Fold this protein.
Amino acid sequence: MPHARGLRETRAIDWAAMTPAGRYAPSPSGDLHFGNLRTALIAWLAARGSGRRFVLRVEDVDTQRSSAESAQRQLEDLATLGLDWDEVLYQHDRDAAYEAALETLPYYECYCSRKDIQEASRAPHAIPGQYPGTCRELSRAARASKRAELAAQGRVPALRLRAEVSEFTVHDALHGDYTGEVDDFILRRGGQAPDWAYNLAVVVDDGFQGVDQVVRGDDLLTSAPRQAYLATLLGLHVPEYIHVPLVLNAEGKRLAKRDGAVTLRELLETRSVGDVVEAMAAGLGYEGVRSADEFLEVFELGRLGTEPSVFEG
């Protein structure tokens, strides 16, 4: 089991009065693999090395994929890797906070299915993957009709932000200024079991936990403009972003659990924790580092690059 300092539950704290924080926020849908764990290690190094608190957040708003057992195993693996933290926040406890934030935002109901959105995105001049605003300007009568149709199916509509910009610029410590598209993204998913959307939950929780440094994989860089824009609407501080390169498999694709023994528990069947940390450090250009504490003594954020590394097993 992880050491006690790594398993303290979130308390009622005045976060704004405390030292700013960095964080790691995994989704509890399975054991963390080598790439996930390396990102967690970098987040811990960046936070501790800059005098910040380091907080964890279990992002379990996706109730269909998340499990308490998976969350516990992830916390245990992080502690085994040598990471400690100051607080753990569980998103399933945060409904009231998300509801309160939602009520301060401009939003509208969306009745579109995924198929509707896919077909709309194929239209001339449509931007692939971007919501085309189908439900944005519906009349009151049309909304009532579509809401009734969903209710007859036992479903509720999604809620989308009524965005007032089409793009937003953020600054990333590794990638510089990055401008990305902002559409009317979902704040709460609809359907038979509505869940809070990632973009809303992550912004609200970063504000609550005092997070001003976000370290995560660079596959999430495109999400940063939406989240930064939402933070400004909520009157929250936009954090410092550090989107780190991913770990790839031998085929040059994103590392996944299908690539063999990639989780910490699997790796520890044939090697030590020191071996695993050494491999992570070597992929970042540091040789001979065999513990998180040793790494903290030599780590320099400015030495991080943007090129992915390859997991060699």
Q: What stands out?
A: The chain has two domains: 4-93+245-310, 104-188. The first strand starts at residue 21 and ends at 24. Confidence is low (pLDDT under 50) at residues 1-13.
